[in-house]
Amino acid sequence: MDQITTPALDQDFIAAQNAPLLSALDEDYAALNRTLDRRGIDIEKITAAVSAFAVAQPTWAVGSGGTRFARFPMGGEPRNIFDKLEDCAVVNALAGATPTVSPHFPWDETSDLAALKDLAASLGLGFDAVNSNTFQDHPNDARHPLSYKYGSLSHTDPAVRAQAIEHNIRCAEIGAALGSKALTVWIGDGANFPGQQHFGRAFDRYIESAQAIYAGIPESFRLFLEHKMFEPAFYATVIQDWGSSLLAAQAVGDRCLCLVDLGHHAPNVNIEMIVSRLVHARKLAGFHFNDSKYGDDDLDAGAIEPYRLFLVFNELVEAAYRKAPGFEPAYMLDQSHNVTDPIESMLSSAEAIAGAYTKALLVERDRLHDAQEENDVMMAFQTLRRAYRTDVTPIVAMARMEAGGALDTLALYRYSGWRSQKARERNATGLGAGIV
Questions:
Q1: pLDDT tens by residue, 249-267
Q2: What is the pTM of this model?
Q3: CA separation for the pair 231, 192 (Å, rounded)
Q4: Which of 308, 160, 168, 162 has the alpha carbon at shortest distance from 226?
Q5: What is the Cα–Cα distance from 289 to 193, expressed in whole angstroms?
Q6: d(CA 112, CA 305)
Q7: How confident is the model over 374-402, as pLDDT tens digits?
């Protein structure tokens, strides 16, 4: 593996670019400190919490995504899992909040797991939950001779279900070798026509398959079930909402949990309430962060509804505040970058997520709880609004710098020349890494 020489990964280079911006940051940070001090909030404590916050990167997000109609690849896209790790390392070096990577199999198959693990370690990266792909066929993979056209874990053919189960167990085995502790399962099973599928039997088959996977993965692993309202099944989806996911997780086992993707809901669904319900049930696996306008758009986190992102984090911070039993959420970005440089979108999203988390930490919990108990509707609402309206940019920037990142991530990334360098080094194959 060639040594990576691009300065975007060099801490001295990042520090040098940060230096001219420090004076302004110190002034803004001091001003915000005075504001928060009047509320009785310790800015240093908040900054330390934000600096320790982390969200995983998916390997597929560092390539250009696409739609059902077209894909527009860009220069320097990763050709394989090793290239993807290089790009993820750039995001982490600049953002300081994305130290783990979530691979997807068989997209990220390699015959040399040891080399993959060594490269990740050399880049300062670890591995988060591994993901299985049984939502499309893999004609060039001898392990997948059967088609998933009519489903996978809920397929009417036991042989197809067995193939999908075996693949998921193998994904967990790969994950264990890489140091992962969780397997995420998302399937496209469902129906496009009324009458096509027996809803009850399909759900039963899914649960039976999930139970088989659960029994076959390491006992140290958690199994994350991901729901999605539609696509590719547009009439009915087997695991279409958090209720279906919860029912399945409860039937499978204690280490089987429900993963929430912000784009996988009907319009106007109260996602923050779903957070509360899953925390109550001790079944919240964590989040895939993105944003959407119409459907599952996989837009950059916070691009459309930043207030909703804040309200979700408000529930997460509330759960941590009251030490909710079994609350150990896993966080990951899950986006499809169709018209932007994927690395820039990842950097932008990491900052938006850190900002939403910071604002949620600023909510005056005791004041909010008192207003709720007294049915003081306006004061409860205003307590949230005051935290949300606070410009937390200085805290996010300071926390990022303390974690080794850049004060101006996008400017430094562009200045580093990473994209143009990789466009020269990586032969254009048309493969890419994004979701189409």
A1: 999 999 999 999 999 999 8
A2: 0.95
A3: 9
A4: 168
A5: 30
A6: 41
A7: 999 999 999 999 999 999 999 999 999 99
* AA letter at 333: L
420: tokens are: 């143009």
d(CA 430, CA 4): 23
d(CA 116, CA 263): 31
CB atoms within 10 A of CB 66: 17
The two three-digit tokens of residue 172, written as one number: 């967990």
Count of alpha carbons within 13 Å of 251, Cβ hemisphere only?
18
Cα→Cα distances 36→58, 320, 388, 392, 425, Å = 35, 21, 13, 10, 48
Query: How far is the first Cα of the chain from the last one, in angstroms, to the nearest whole number?
Result: 28
| Rounded Cα distance, 255 and 72, in Å | 40
CA-CA distance, 135 to 316, in Å (whole number)? 30
The alpha-carbon radius of gyration of the chain (Å, integer) is 22
Distance, CA of 103 to CA of 75 (rounded, Å): 22
Q: For helices 306-321 and 377-389, what crossing angle results, to 10°?
A: 110
- Which helix (H) or strand (E) is 331 found in, with range? strand 330-333
- Write out the two tokens for 124: 């300062």
How far is residue 378 from each of residues 124, 309, 386, measured CA to CA in Å?
47, 21, 12
The rounded Cα 427 to chain-centroid distance in angstroms is: 29
The helix or strand, by DSSP H or E, that contains position 256, with its residue range, turns out to be strand 256-261
Q: How far is CA 287 from CA 66, 139, 263, 271, in A?
A: 22, 31, 11, 11
Q: Which two tokens stand for residue 259?
A: 């993963």
